[in-house]
Amino acid sequence: MKILYETSKTRGSVIAPVLRRLILSWLTAVTIENILCPVALSETAALGELSTVRIVLVTAVVFGLLWLAARFLPASWERWAMAVLFGLLSEVSLYRSFTWTFLIACLLVLAVLVLYALCGWDGSKPRITPSKKQNVFLWLAAVGAVLFFLFVSVWTVCRVYSFGAPTYDFGIFAQMFHSMKTTLQPITTVERDGALSHFAVHVSPIYYLLLPFYCLVPKPATLQVLQAAVLATAVIPLWKLGRRHGFSPLLRFLVCLLLLVYPAFAGGASYDIHENAFLTPLILWLFYGIDCRRGLVAALAAILTLMAKEDAAVYVAVIALWLLVKTLVRREGLWGLIVGGLMLAGALGWFVWVTGFLANSGDGVMTYRYKNFIYDGSGSLMSVVKAVLICPMKAVFECVDPEKLKFIGLTLGPLLALPLVTRRYERYILLIPYILVNLMSDYQYQHDIFFQYTYGATACLFYLTLVNLADIRLEKVRIIALAVALAVGIGCFSALVVPKAIRYPKYCIQYGDYYDKLRSLLDLVPEDASVAATTYYTTHLSQRDVLYDVRYASKEHLLSCEYIVLNVSDEKSFKAYGGFEGLIALLESEGYTLLAEYEGKLEIYRK
User: Fold this and answer.
1) What is the DSSP letter of 372?
2) Over the stretch 449-467, which tens digit does the pLDDT of each residue have?
3) pTM of the prediction?
4) Is the peptide bond before 169 cis (omega within 30 degrees of 0)?
5) In this structure, how many other beta carbons lie within 10 angstroms of the beta carbon of residue 441?
6) In this structure, are residues 478 and 134 in contact, taking their beta carbons and an 8 Å threshold?
7) Which DSSP letter does residue 450 get?
8) Closest among 289, 286, 277, 271 to 232, alpha carbons compared
9) Angle at CA 353, nearest 5°, toward 364 and 386?
């Protein structure tokens, strides 16, 4: 493959040198600022000592000087300067904030920059030769998707029927869908201890796509089955993307199978239904629409992605930025500029509006998850952007915190780190969601494969894996790489996901009579009654207009309920009342009497 160095004769050379010099100028300014004002990266407030104004001014001056010197110096000089400056910046940062993981991360980034300095950027256009072959592997991929659907469905439905799905978050969604079915409004009382639209907490109109199916079987377990179905559909755009990039049917089957055993894919369902589950299939459809230049597919996928959640705008904006940069540096015509521009404008506009709505009329934006970057006490997400721009090493430092290493291993390991292996450096833009959502935040659940925050990044990582593999022209190398990745994925899936999943079906089989008895007693509570319950009973009782969680309900709301349903062993729920006996004394003084009880586990009180 021909390597295109960024000289004046290189096709696509107008934008590529501009980007390179802009990055070099910014890196120069940041390095100077960090030398003048070295900060400890573990101390977020210390970032306030860095001057944004100085960084902007130095960036502008250096950019001008580089532009003037460009005719006298080869492009390789600028590439080497980037590697040297990053090495110097790393040395300064490591001196003040040394950890072994931080050192390794700095060396890996430096290795990429040295490779860029040596070989330059691969400016050639990827050769896309769509494959039209289908054969038996298409049916094998379909069978794999069905088996995945059954696996996740059984796992999560049994979680419901073994009373393993708590109020937060499944009880919320169970009551929300009941409300959507009866009033078309996503109202819950259990989420914030009072009647409130769930969209005041997270704006997720995508849920209405599931409502017709839920109405057919209006039970909490239906939501788990629907989520499994949504996830399983991700193999459709992934298969089509493989065909688009010239993968043989065998390779497409292996890629689809790799997704189905990817630990963070099935693992994300372990905490019950969430709107994030839509992100993997929708973002893959967005990539497919872009790759095939099908504007309608891309537009529909982008709009639906934005409808998933307020922060889903990040994925659309990043993909739009990648499309714009790719189109500019490779001179791919107006289509990418128009679509990318519209996507970026739409994503940013939606994000500004929806976060403004949440801040002014809703429950607020959850910026606390990035408190390790908000150095000025503003509580604004713009502070996160500023922190990365004035001190990029802070982002590197936070991404390799020791508690995140297992997550990195479980997300990049089964992909053999293929998302990182490319000389088409504009593709690294697509790593932003993985870095921003999963690694930069110190919110522990965002770097845990058993929570729902992995789905957007999973789509980007698999797309990068696919297109980077497509750059390898040897079919045997592709097959070997995917076979090894699949072996790693199956190993992680078998060791981590399967044991967690089979626990709940085993509970349902082993303690089936016990759970049946609990359900029969809970059914004594009338459907039109107001109820307060401890966390693992709210899901079963969620088909009601008024429902509270005992632990989080105010005393006023608790005592306004006609029925109180208690798990006697749930000590945390009774802490505010001085323990279980204290709560019972309060209930009896308010005229509640014991309606039913079972083996010291369940007690139901009626007013």
Assistant:
1) T
2) 999 999 999 999 999 999 9
3) 0.93
4) yes
5) 22
6) no
7) T
8) 277
9) 75
Report long-range pairs for 34-39 (Cβ below 8 Å, ≥24 apart). 34/89, 34/92, 34/93, 34/391, 34/393, 35/88, 35/92, 38/92, 38/95, 38/96, 39/96, 39/391
Residue type, 416: L
End-to-end Cα distance, the chain:
78
Which amino acid is it at 462? F
Question: What's the token pair of residue 402?
Answer: 């020791």
Question: By C-alpha distance, which of 42, 34, 44, 30 is closest to 377?
Answer: 44
Q: What is the amino acid identity at position 75? A: A
Structure tokens at 311: 């922060």
Going by C-alpha positions, the residue among 560, 536, 559, 533 that lies closest to residue 547 is: 533
Q: Which helix (H) or strand (E) holds 347?
A: helix 334-360
- Around 220, how many Cα atoms within 13 Å sit in the side-chain half-sphere? 30
Query: DSSP readout, 136-193?
Result: HHHHHHHHHHHHHHHHHHHHHHHHHHTT---IIIIIHHHHHHHHHHHHSS-EESTTTT
Looking at residue 464, its amino acid is: L
> 532 forms bridges with which residues in the sheet?
548, 564
pLDDT tens digit string along 246-288? 999 999 999 999 999 999 999 999 999 999 999 999 999 999 9
Q: Is the pLDDT of residue 8 over 90?
A: no
119: alpha, beta or left, given left = phi > 0 and alpha = psi -120 to 50? alpha
- Angstrom distances, CA of residue 250 to CA of 141, 487, 550, 571, 603: 10, 16, 53, 54, 57
Residue whose C-alpha is closest to residue 534's, from 603, 599, 451, 606: 603
Are the C-beta atoms of residues 171 and 538 closer than 8 Å to each other?
A: yes
